[in-house]
Design goal:
Number of domains: 2
Helix content: 25-40%
Oligomer: single chain
Structural class: alpha/beta
Distance between the termini: 35 Å
Radius of gyration: 24 Å
Shape: elongated
Bound molecules: adenosine-5'-diphosphate, magnesium ion
Strand content: 25-35%
Strand order of the largest sheet: 5-6-7-3-8-9
Number of strands: 13
Order of helices and strands: EEEHEHEHHHEHEHEEHEEEHEH
CATH topology of the largest domain: Rossmann fold
Length: 310
């Protein structure tokens, strides 16, 4: 990619002997929203903190807007917006006072009312921060990250602890920011969030990128599935092969269920083979299902691999 807003090339980070990030690479184009998806401990926050300039790299190279964010922090920091995983506030300040405090050292900051509006707290401007809910604090944190109209925005689990309404409001804010040309790198363990927002994503697992690309690219070839109840008058051996694969048989509620995993463009062709066979054999397929792989399938497989190796 030419002139990416964010470049990560072979990044390694360790805490003592423990390698939290084990050589990852990805680029984020200007104006793109890239999601780092991963379970707890995958290395998301460590990666973000490195890009924010809080940590020197142990290996590899990172660039934000063409600069080393750690060594050239003063050049890039004013162009970044940062929402940490745990934002710290002065609990005794009101919402409006908090915004004013931040405006005091943000060049060309948005106005107070605009920022409070972005946080969705227009009717709570006089309330002390300690009285806000967890989700409201997150939204205030996001509004503060946007105060200086950043070119690059880092969001670490921006919607954790939010109810669905606050989450959707936050997604809308983030989409508006991207529409305005800001580059966004966010971490999340919510699949729905990545599916909703991300132009591209990477699944991070124990410090390594397992897979990356658009949602379509990430799920492609991960096993579309066709299943149905084995008809009572048939032996399992009488079931057809679909796209050259045999059925896996499982038992669900006392009924044998046949399922086939077919890859890529095989779903349509496999379904066609099955329906033609059923028609010729005059077989009725109860409980017939055909579905494409989802991001959830890919993600759960990654998490299951983690459980198996720990
Ligand atoms: N300051 C630290 N000292 C030691 N280990 C740490 C430290 N911060 C994080 N880790 C470990 O590094 C790994 C990655 O952590 P983190 O980047 O926070 O992951 P994520 O944000 O994906 O949950 C985890 O195993 C975590 O326990
Ligand atoms: Mg984290």
């Amino acid at each position: 990619m030419e002139n990416p807003a964010i470049r990560v090339d072979g990044l390694r980070q360790r805490y003592g002997d423990f390698e939290a990030v084990a050589g990852i690479s990805f680029d984020v184009a200007a104006g793109e929203l890239f999601a780092l998806l991963g379970t707890n401990g995958a290395g998301k926050t460590t990666t973000l903190e490195t890009l924010e300039g809080h940590r020197a790299v142990h290996g590899g190279t990172v660039r934000v807007l063409g600069h080393d964010p750690h060594r050239e922090r003063r050049k890039v920091r004013p162009r970044m917006g940062i929402m940490l995983q745990d934002g710290g506030f002065f609990a005794d300040l009101t919402v409006a006072e908090t915004v004013d405090h931040w405006r005091g050292f943000t060049p060309a900051a948005r106005g107070r009312d605009e920022a409070v509006g972005i946080a969705g707290l227009a009717d709570r401007a006089g309330v002390r921060v300690r009285q806000l809910s967890g989700g409201q604090k997150r939204r205030l944190d996001l509004a503060l990250a946007l105060l200086g109209r950043p070119e690059v925005l880092f969001l670490d689990e921006p919607t954790s602890g939010m109810d669905p309404e606050a989450r959707h409001a936050t997604w809308k804010t983030v989409r508006d920011v991207v529409a305005g040309g800001t580059t966004v790198l966010l971490t999340t363990h919510y699949l729905e969030e990545a599916e909703h927002l991300a132009d591209r994503l990477a699944i991070l697992h124990r410090g390594r990128i397992e897979t990356s690309g658009t949602v379509g690219e990430v799920v492609a070839g991960h096993g579309d599935r066709i299943s149905f109840q084995v008809p009572g008058n048939l032996q399992v051996t009488e079931l057809p092969e679909l796209r050259g694969t045999r059925a896996d048989i499982s038992v669900d509620g006392g009924r044998a269920v046949a399922s086939y995993t077919v890859n890529g463009a095989g779903l349509q062709a496999g379904l066609y083979e099955l329906l033609r066979w059923a028609d010729e054999e005059r077989v009725r397929l109860d409980g017939l299902q055909a579905r494409s792989a989802s991001l959830e399938d890919v993600f759960l497989r990654t998490a299951a691999a983690e459980g198996a190796t720990r």
